[in-house]
Write a structure and sequence with these properties.
It holds the Pfam family VanZ. By secondary structure, this protein is mainly α.
Length: 122
């Protein structure tokens, strides 16, 4: 039983690591303007919110933390990661810029996941 639990936790560690790299990659690459069939208001902010909601969830599962203090550390790390990515966008990309509202959407995603999972787990 412990072996399957260990493999399950390791699986989430791989997912969390991959998701972190994916967020960094997708936020720092050049994306050509492509025509969209459906115009969704604030779709960029919804994407940022969703990315960091999932990021918090995956790292919480990967590290198997149950204490509030440890979960808040994950929230803080996700927020810092989002800020770092925004700064890197401003420095290293020519077609993207650092956006405080993207950082806010990242923060809201991580905090919302923390709050949501606190209520779901009760």
């Amino acid at each position: 039983m412990k072996i399957t639990q260990h493999l399950s936790e390791r699986k989430f560690l791989y997912f969390a690591f991959f998701w972190s790299i994916f967020i960094g990659y997708i936020c720092l690459i050049t994306i050509k303007k492509t025509p969209t069939l459906v115009s969704i208001p604030f779709k960029d902010k919804i994407a940022h919110f969703s990315f960091y909601f999932i990021l918090f969830y995956l790292w919480k599962k990967a590290l198997n933390v149950k204490e509030i203090k440890s979960q808040l550390k994950i929230v803080l790390m996700a927020v810092l990661y989002g800020i770092i990515i925004e700064v890197l966008q401003g420095i290293f990309t020519s077609d993207r810029h650092a956006d405080i509202f993207d950082a806010l959407a990242n923060t809201l995603g991580a905090v919302s996941a923390f709050v949501f999972l606190r209520f779901v787990n009760k």
